[in-house]
Structure formats: C-alpha cells, structure tokens
Amino acid sequence: TLYQGLGGEAGIAQLVSRTLDRSASDARTRRSFEGIKLSAIKASLAQQICALSDGPCVYEGETMARSHQDAKIRASEFDALVGMLREELDAAGVSAAAKNELLRRLAPMKRDIVAAD
Ligand code: HEM
C-alpha cells in the first residue's frame, strides 16, 4: 500500500514533522503558523496522511476548508508547502511512485485550503 511506501506510521510522522517544522520557519509560509501549536497540527496531519494512504487510521480532524479558512492561504503558499513536502519525501528515500501518488491524492485539497482571491 501507499502507507507502506511512505514508511508506515514512523515514516509518516517524520515526514510530517520535518515538513511542518520547515513550513513554520520558511519565509514563504511561516506567517500562517504564528501562535499555532505545531504538535497538534503534526498529529492531525499525520493521521490524515495515514488514512489517505490506506493506512490503519481514521482522520478525526476538521475539514480542510474549516481548518484553513481563517489563514486565507494563497496558492503560492500552498505550492511552497507542497514543495517542501516533496523535498522531504525525496530526502526520506520514498520512491517516485509513492511520492507522486501521495501528491496526487493531496492535490484535490488545494481548492478547499486556498482562499478564493
Ligand atoms: C496539502 C496541503 C495541506 C494539508 C493536507 C493540510 C492539512 C492540515 C490538517 C490535517 C490540519 C489540522 C486540522 C485539524 O486538526 O482539525 C491543518 C491545520 C493547519 N494548516 Fe494545513 N494543510 C495543508 C496546507 C497548508 C498550508 C499551505 C498552510 C499555510 C501555509 C497550512 C496551515 C495550517 C495551519 C496554520 C493550521 C492550523 C489551523 C488552526 O489550528 O487554527 N496548511 N492542516
């Protein structure tokens, strides 16, 4: 399964942790994370990616539209975060097939996460 291709629970936890640490400090994306508890988003995003990759998890967080509406996220910010995720997938040695499949499953969320501008 894709879940296994991502390294299972531990692999996903590490990917999410590294991507969010970078997103919270990168000049292109950090403004949305000011005052936000990263540990809570890390746990929720890891659960979501576990579920999305056919792992043994059920995502119990908010919808993407509701959890991002206040931040008014721009397309450029979305693309920058996904770029960091892509780099972390490469750094973790995830196969191109698994990487592209994850990104393909995440892509439809863009319309709910990016604010209409
Ligand atoms: C494919 C892209 C993304 C996915 C899958 C995703 C997923 C998530 C998830 C699962 C949560 C937690 C929701 C909950 O626990 O109820 C969350 C929260 C959050 N996300 Fe994203 N996100 C994405 C893109 C972004 C981008 C581009 C930004 C900003 C640059 C961002 C900023 C935030 C912030 C600040 C929160 C916390 C909101 C709050 O607690 O008030 N996300 N995201």
UniProtKB/TrEMBL annotation:
The keyword Nucleus does not apply. It comes from the Bacteria. GO terms for molecular function: heme binding; metal ion binding; oxygen binding. Keywords: Heme, Iron, Metal-binding, Signal, Transport. The keyword Disulfide bond does not apply. Transmembrane segments: none annotated. Heme binds at H68. This is Hemoglobin. The lineage of its organism: Bacteria, Pseudomonadati, Pseudomonadota, Betaproteobacteria, Burkholderiales. The chain holds residues 31 to 147 of 147 of the full protein.
